[in-house]
Fold each of these.
Amino acid sequence: MIDILLSLLILTGAIFTFIGSLGLARLQDFYTRLHGPTKATTLGVGCLLIASALYFSVREEGVSLHEVLVTLFLFITAPVSAHLLGKAALHLKVKSLAPTPAQDADAPSDPA
Amino acid sequence: MLSTVIPIAYALVSLAFLMSFWRLLRGPDAPDRILALDTLYVNTIALLVLLGIHLGSAIYFEAALLIAMMGFVGTIALCKYLLRGDIIE
């Protein structure tokens, strides 16, 4: 029973990690590429870490809490780094398929 | 059950590695490359966790925790450099 749950969690985690990197490799511009790794990959690694916590809690005496530490850290840091990356891209005026807020702000001020 | 799932998971995470690396080499702008580096370290954590389950050893978490912290600091430092042209002002 626990084996099936573990296998399901590991498979889900690996598939989400894969989808995150697929998005990073295949999507069109930087702002869409930002979505893949920051959401799908974080969820995938979260699933893998939960699977690992479950595995070591069942196998050994007591609850294994190392993984929760890594999970918490990743879930806190992923949005922060994504925010800073987006800010850096806006600052550098990276090419975008859709109008970005910075370009919208620039547009009215140009004729004036 | 686990012995069939873990190799599949290894293969998927390794493919994810290769695609992130491709973006790291190709990425047209600097933020793309930083994002690829960020993804690479998260993939490394996934691989280390899988290795820990496969080999039944809890030692790999210390490495995963260190990589998580150092990777975050690295990403923030590179972003700050792009934003300000300087890391510590």
Amino acid sequence: MNKFSPTPTDRLLKRCLPFWRNCLATFLALVFLSSTSAIAIDARALEYQVKGACLVKFGMFVEWPAATQNSSGKSSFVIGILGDDPFGKSFDEAVAKEKVNGRQVLVKRGRSAAELLDCQIVFISYSELERVSAALAIFSTNGVLTVSDAPTFARNGGMVGFFKEATKDGIKVRFEINTEIAGQSGLKVSSKLLQVGRVVTSGKPDHG
Amino acid sequence: MSVLCATTGLKPLHAAESTGSTSPTNVSNVMELSLDQLLDVNVDKVYGASKYEQKVSQAPASVSLVMRDEIQKQGYRTLADVLRGVNGVYVSDDRNYSYIGMRGFNRPGDYNSRVLMLVNGHRINDNVYGQALVGTEGLLDVGVIERVEVVRGPSSSIYGNNAFFGVVNVITRRGRDLNGTEITGELGGNDTFKSSLSYGKQFESGLEVMLSGSAYTSGGERSIYFPEFDSPAENNGVAWKSDEDEVYNFFGSAAYSGFTLSGGVNWRDKTIPTASFETEFNDGGEKTTDSRAYLDLKYDREVTETVTFVGHVAYDYSWYEGDYPYGVGAGRVLNKDEAFGEWASADWQVNWRVADRHTIVVGGDYRENITIQQENFDADPFAEYLDDNRSGREMGLFAQAELSLLTNLVLNAGGRFDHYSTFGNTVNPRVGLIYTPFAATAFKALYGSAYRAPNAYELYYNYPGQSKANPDLKPEEIKTYELVWEQGLPANLRFSLAGYYYEIENLTSQNVDPGDGLLVFKNTETANARGVEFSLEARYDSGLMVRLSCAVQRTEDELTQTELSNSPREMAKLNVIAPLWEDKLFAGIDLQYYSAVDTVSLTRGDDIFNVNATLTSRPIGKNLEISASLYNLFDSTDGFSASSEHINSLGSQLNTMPRGGRSFRLKLTYRF
């Protein structure tokens, strides 16, 4: 009945197991090494992929004042990230093919507002929110569109604040936009952006 | 139970076809979307942990997701196959049913009553055994599955009964996911054939329809060798042609304007080679037939911008019939064991989003057990041993709040009250703190309790001279403590680490009453489990996916201070999907290792090692897909512990259950 007995293969297998484990370890090491040069971004960072893409789109629906250094005369369209970077390096790769009104999109990171004055849009990270008011003042006089993740950003001196909304289809990225603050910096927001965003004014939410 | 069906609304990405709805999307794809489309993208989310969709990192539990794409490229044949690939989960089978193990617990003889299974939020565990079946005997054909969420740890605070060690929530494909007709044909080892036909569409009127049916037959392994039965009186331990399997599944859904009607039915007939319940070995006549069905009407409505209402009414049945041959020749008697359960249920749930930061969920459910019937009789000459008819009801109320204490600190707290006509009341809380100091980092500290109500089989099954009922059984109770760390790393790596400690009381087990020598279920055992689970996952634009996971766990029966049976101390899994040629040819490797387990007969099994490999190809466009799989590549048959019912007419007890040997499958899928 040895014909039906599983033992020979099993014994063989058990002898081979250490070998397979080593193969596995080698294979994994190779995969991880090769992965360091890969281009894509973490699958679960989808939220920031979407927000990043939104930043580029904002560039198409906002008109910057000609008087500032951010006007269309300059060759590239710069998106700044102030503080900790939630988008990751892949954001640079992603925007490499993108153009806003014919201008190449670039990403610039900085730890202070002064470093990012040549940006058209600045995303203000959570890490900076405690000292955001000084930065906002600097950006506002330089015609920079300020964007953040903070829930009440657009109602407290910022221009565009992302938030998330649970719909019956799932959780979507949304944004609030404060046209008053944007207007004070000379920025003109197109009606398209006002259609898809939620317009708010300083101090209180407005569901219009 | 309610569901918010998975939606991406991600038409352009879906057209790329290579990924499921919440699977990875590369940046360049996202950049191609319009602003409107961007605002319609769903971020990664999970439904099962909190009864509404939320990001995996915000869920008050350790959660794994398996998408349809992975199911196809790994050649998974059943939901049991899918679960085998999930970190920390192990699935045994006894050549009849499949049994889910989690966190070191896979009690021999437990028909998955300690794991809650949901299909689109509808409870699948039945009202006789509390069982949820996941092998070929399961309600769903794997072809209708869009994604599977595995939530580890207790969720009785929202789901009530059965959500003891975890929740398996299956989301099915919708009309728009199919968008046409799909025909599949499969051919496999051991004379296995399967075919399916599915149709799905979302019409301009808003009506969305999905229908799918499948048929499966398998001759099974022609001969299976059981070393424990190796004697001349037992055909030298070889069961001939006793592994046949025949399955029919149907599932469908129709959605229109807030209403969704969905339902499924399956029928399955399986020959049993193991001579369980002291039957004659190699008789060929031992078999079971199972059927499970439900019809569920859901109403889903946004009451205001921040308040949503979901309600369900449903009808379910489950049916089981077993043929058990005793004696040989003229003295051969076919004993029949039957169970029929039938129930109607209703539930409601309100989600309230407060100040864009907090979520409050309240809900309730009610179940009327119309019929709970268990029968046992000899067919010819007729002799009845058991005819037990019951009915009963159960109801629950729950509330849960997700409060953003700080921008990066969320408190998730909730509790549920349940009333049963059988044992009375139980209350179960869950509290979780979720701290996300950085976008890619989440820490979770979780505490919860859960219960499993005694089922009708444990309460009422009695067989003259063998076993007796115990209507005084109490629910099993578990208290759990867990820490989870989820971290996104550079180079598309994502890792998670979970450590847990479980304390279980009133564990129900079957023992002999010394007073009368009859088997009876009692709440005797106290047990604990502790362990660590680790996983590292990488996904790339090219389609390459690598996931390595390991679990180390220890369980203990506190009375005897011994390890529980069927509890592997170590598990390791490697899951790779690699593109071999553009997006036309993919290889899937699914590798699992489990350290040896103690068996019910107090022996120790052998290490279990399984490798499956699948090649998937779309050689001519997107319409035709060919896949070829090899299962159990190294033909290793070491298995998990057999349960104590696997004892034949001569009193020989199986120690471990030999797994099926090497086999193959060829599958063709055509879409139009």
